[in-house]
Amino acid sequence: MDKTWYELLVNAEDDDLKSHAENMLLGAFGAQEAVAGYLKQHKIIK
User: pTM here?
Assistant: First the structure.
């Protein structure tokens, strides 16, 4: 995964873009916990 979807989720001002980014992340990982685990594992978030 590239940071792109995560960065779009946290930085987009448009709610539709945030929603799309969230859907893409959930589609790839299946659950918010899995997304968070990946982001932590790869030191994208703490």
Answer: 0.83
